[in-house]
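Appendix B, record 7
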Amino acid sequence: MDAGGADASSWAMNGEQEEMGMRRQGWGLRGGAMVAALGLVCGASMTAAQEGTPSATLEVVGQVAHPGHIHSGDCGNLGDVVFPLSDAGIPASGEEDTGASPMAEAAGGGSEMAIPAYVSITQLDASIEDILAAPHAINFHESAENIENYIACGEIGGITYGDNLQFGLRELNGSGYTGVGLISSGGDGGVNVLVYLSPTNR
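Structure tokens (predicted):
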């Protein structure tokens, strides 16, 4: 190969290496952005949990109120209730006589085809390590009146980003509800549990 050909080949190899390095850097930046976004979501939501009511448990209003609990065991073999969670529903606004910080009133907007998402936010006196030390699952019910009908469940585990643990909830009994759970350290030795439920069959 002549000198010109060698130079061209070397230039091409250098170009490919530079492009691969840029790709790696791009993926690294995107990955960092995803983790940062997760932290922002957890931080904003957990602030609402800590300031929303004196018990740091979100209150919901309206007809949608799905009771939830953390159980020992897994979704196929639920054990005892270890921690009760706030109902999943539409967040209530803060009331002056409860000492709660004001929260925005729930209001509709945007597309009428949007799928609703219901939220449960609870602060617990436990650590992520305590919860992960044994099998646990989060289970939600149709309502207090129909407590025997389970609508969504998810085993607690998966990937931890810093002090944040995220996992999914699967549909049960043809309810159409699926969800996402986030557990984050509360900074005072406890944890904050955030769950979103959505009726995806609508």
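Remarks on this record: Residues 8-13, 16-56, 94-103 have pLDDT under 50 and may be disordered. The longest strand covers residues 60-74.
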